[in-house]
Structures are given as structure tokens and as C-alpha cells.
């Protein structure tokens, strides 16, 4: 049973009762009765106190034998009122005997024992308008100070809003690192106190004991479960780690393609090491470095050579599985600058798990941090925000057994999210991607290694990329033949090679007038003449005989739209992000008519201007599928419906810190009390329209043709 389930069970049993028999000791009393209602019938603080305690016990997070309520510790001199903890959790079941011994007999040794074994201090509130910062500064900090452990957890539960704090090595901060704006040095104003903890953040008894065991540890004897999970986009430690890596690369003059190839290879070793440990738990992790190894004087130092030997062995083991990333050897362990980068990356990431971390956090903190550094043309490449990716993947619904491609793959965010989110796991062998940038493809491959088994076919093709180059049925790259493949006639070939067709195309291609394609030479012209829309735009949609005037440019979004259509299987579907000018302005009526003549348009989603802060371009999402021609005509005759939604709220804003862009969450505010709203699991709710839009779209699908339902709302 989860905490949420236990909380719901408590509510179903006790929400209407006035009096409750306590199942935990209150001070020195067992079985005390307490009142659950105010005079007006509303639940009081006691209700939420026992709701929480019931939930942590019934969910198995803590055993009741370790818990007491209304626990009193002396304060200052004997005449001072005692410090009263609403509840306390100790690390030893004998706490109650010690507690009675102190309060009944005045035994100070028992008091000392209690302070040494106090593991969790808890405070409960009922929306009494007390400032969270005041409760933390004036109450919880004092409670945590009663513990003489190096670590103690503080819990504030305010009308189902959960806040977790910790005292560790004399520092007082939020338990979850993501809330501490300045890491362990954060003061009260830097603890993000407007954001509650999710109930999922509640540690259990064993976790706390492990956390509080502050003794030194041997990194050579660790397994993947011993590593910390990367949590929260504000994770200061990880941000600092990546900044340190980039500084080191700058210091040794390796902020260049070779330097980033080395970085990718090292990260692939980290992922391999973790995944190997998952499969073989008897083997310890090899991706670590000791202080002696790190502080080398020369490359000949024995300790450093031991480290290099361990990394070389790890690379040899990984090279077979991760051949596509490790086939080249830019990392030269006899080059001191390369070794310095290797040491820095291992040192900064050795205590964190990539495999176990939430992918959203990992993307924001790692992939999105490094991706701009890899980009050869920052104006042409921009990161697709994860909330948008999640939304589109949920709408398009890639399923087990289907083939998926992103022709402008970037860091493979659409592909990786499709893999993770598919109702029944997609097969790596059915995932394809292409990009013009070799280094972005390496990063994309790393992304897919993290999520899958490394068999996704992601390839780089310089020049025209996927506009000219296609996958064949064997997974190899073949080019269109301009003399034979004009105006979309792509299946006409002089050889036995067949173009591969896909079930799903998900892509966010370059778009907008400033991304228009202008043929610069005969090669460019030959390529673009393979597209029917180029011909239609050249002749104003009227055919060749109407005019001899040749178009001199075309929006790349239009070209990628046709490209997506041409590589689809029958009843295959697309989800594509485009400039909304294609869906609205008169100059693109040709593209709209062409799309309606060839595909069943399913949905159009208008997005606000701030989705892609780098471009400032207003964008839309077009979702469509490719029925048989006769079926499409029937649908058009029936005047089929299109789901349309203007999305206003996206749940984030783009911010820049230290010259790095990231997506900062924007939360939903309850304007009755001006607090962040929480969901059933205690999480802060993002201020976004995506979730409701997905639900509305799925409901709308139920009223459409069977083929559409089969594609968009059913799993295979």
C-alpha cells in the first residue's frame, strides 16, 4: 500500500467521526481519545496528524513501535516550558521505556539516550495561516537540534501539504536537494518553501538509517542501488558538477569536437557500468575514482595507472555492446589533458545513478546542458521542451511492434520518451533517427542507450540529411535519385532497394521564414525537386502549365511535412511541430490543401509564443494519419471532424542561468490562499493545459471512426 492509498483508506474510515482512539502513545498515555472536528464541523489539526501517522504505518514506511506523539524534551532551566514535538520517531524500539524512565524518574542518562536516537521530528498544522518559514525557523529547527545524531529528518504536514527537512552535519535544509537553491548552504529564503514535497519523497525507516550512517564508505564495493538518484531540475550539485566538467574542458583546451566525443564516450561507460550491475548484482561498479587516484602528480603514478587500468577494462567490456559510440578512440589515456577530463567526469558523476534517475530530471540536468555545446549551428538546432514532447508522444501513442522515426532527431528526445512512455515497451530495433550533425547523433545514441538496449538505428548524414537520405528496409541509408524521384515519386528505383516505411513519425524540424530553404546550386535544386510541394508552390498550386515561374524558396517545415508523409506506412501517423503560419496564412494554403488531399487531419494544437524562446516563432502541432485513398475520400465526404485546441499554459518558462537555458516549472496557484496547488500524491501541480487536453482528446476519439480509435487510443 502506498502512502496515498493509506491516506485514502483513513479518510474513508474516519472523515465523518468526531472522536478517535489514538493507536500510538501520547506522551506517557496509551489509548487516549482525541477530537477530529472543529465546532463548525471542519477537520482540525488532530485529524491531519493522525491521517499522516496512520498512512506512514499502514504503508509500511515506519513501524508503530518506533513512534510516539506529544513527545516532550526539557528546555533550558527547570522552570521553562518543555519542547513539545507533535510526534517523534526513534531508531530503537526501546525508546518508550527510556522516555518513561526520564519523565518518571528524572534519569538524565535516558534523556541523553533519547536525543542520540531521535531520527525524525514531526510537526502538524491545519492551515492556521502560519508562515511555513516561521514554523521551520521557530519550531522544527529546535526539534531537530534536540537530536544528537549527525542526521535527523524534519517533517511538516500542513493540511495534506508535506514539507521535508533535514539536519545533516550541522546544516539545516530541505530533505530533497532540488529545493535547496544554494545547496547545503541554503538559508531559509533559499529553500523553495512555496513548493511542497511529493508523498513519493517520503523516505522509509531503512532509507533514513542508511542516510544517517555518515561513516566513510568504500566506492570500490558499491552497487547501483547505493548511488543517489538525480532529482529535481534545481539540483545544485549536478549543475555544479557539469559546470566543473565544462570548466575543466576549457582549462585544457578541449571545448571542441574531440573533447565532446571524449565526454560522450565516458558517459556511455557510466551507463554500461550501471546496466551491467543491474543484471549482475554480484559485481561491483567500476566507474569511480579514489582520492589517491584523483590527486596524481604524473601519469606514471601507480594509483593513477590503477584507475586507468580499471577504465580501460570497463571500456573493453562495453565496446562490444556500445560499438557505435566506442568504435573510435578519441580518448587517449597517455594524453594528460584527456586524462584530466576523464578524472573530472568520473569524479563528478560517480555518486549519481543515470539509470535509476527520473528521465525528465536527467534530460534537464545533463542532456540539455551539454546539447548546445555540441551544436554546430545554434540557430538551426534548439531543444524541444520535455512537457511538449511528453504531450505529443501521449497524443500520437506509439505502441509495441510499431516502427518510429524522427527525421530531425537532435538528442533523440521524441524517440526516448516514446520508448519510455509506450504502454507496452517499444523495441529498440524499431526505432530510427537521422540528423545532419554527427555529434548530436552521438548524444542521441547515448540517450537511447540510457533508455533502451542500444539497438536503435540513429545515423548522421551531412548535407541535406533526411531530406535526401532515407532508410531502406535493411536499415541502411540510401539516397533519393532526383532524375527518377521527382514530385514525390520516391518508390521508383533502378535497384532492388526499397524505402522503409514507418508507423509513426514524430519530429520538430527547423521551421519559419528565416529557416526557408533556398537552392544554392544544382544539387540543392535536384533535391528539392523530389518534393511535390516544391512544384506546387512554384506553380501556385495550379500545375505546370499555369506558369513558368519557379519558386525561389520554401519553408523547411512544409518540406519536412511532405517528407513525413512519404515515409509513412498505410494508416501510419505523424506528429509534427511547425510554424503556425502553415496552418493559418494565405501563402501556405497550398500546403494545407495538399495535406487534406493526402492525409486525415486528426488534431491541430496551437501553442503559445513562449514554447521555443530561442526562436520567438508561434508554433502549432499537426497530428494526422494516412488512410487508403478511397477511405480518405469517404471521410472527406462525411465532413470528418478535427480536434482543435488552443493551448495557453505550458507549465514552464525558459530561463537562463550562467548562460545556460533551462525550463523552469510554473505552478498552479490557488488564488483563495495564494498557495501552490497539489495533486492527490502531494506534488505541486504545474500550470499547464497538456494533461486536460490529452484527456479531452482521448474522449473525443471515442466518437470518431474505428481506424482512428484503433490508432490513437488503443494499445497493441
Tell me the layout of helices and strands.
Blueprint: H1 3-14, E1 19-21, E2 33-35, H2 45-58, E3 67-73, E4 83-90, H3 95-105, H4 108-117, E5 118-125, H5 132-146, E6 151-158, E7 161-168, E8 171-174, H6 205-212, E9 228-229, H7 236-251, H8 257-279, H9 291-294, H10 302-321, H11 323-326, H12 336-349, E10 352-353, H13 359-374, H14 386-396, E11 404-406, H15 413-421, E12 431-435, H16 438-451, E13 457-460, E14 469-471, E15 477-479, E16 502-507, E17 516-517, H17 522-528, H18 532-538, E18 554-555, H19 556-566, E19 568-579, H20 581-584, H21 589-598, E20 600-606, E21 619-625, H22 629-637, E22 643-646, E23 652-657, E24 660-665, E25 669-670, E26 675-676, H23 690-701, H24 706-712
Parallel strand pairs: 5-6, 9-10, 11-12, 11-16, 12-13, 16-19, 20-22
Antiparallel strand pairs: 1-2, 3-4, 4-5, 6-7, 7-8, 14-15, 17-18, 19-21, 20-21, 23-24, 25-26
What structural keywords apply?
716 residues, alpha/beta, Rossmann fold, eight-stranded mixed beta sheet, 18% strand, globular
So, the CATH homologous superfamily of the largest domain? Vaccinia Virus protein VP39
CATH fold naming of the largest domain:
Rossmann fold
Count of domain modules: 4
CATH class of the largest domain: Alpha Beta
**Distinct helical segment count:** 24
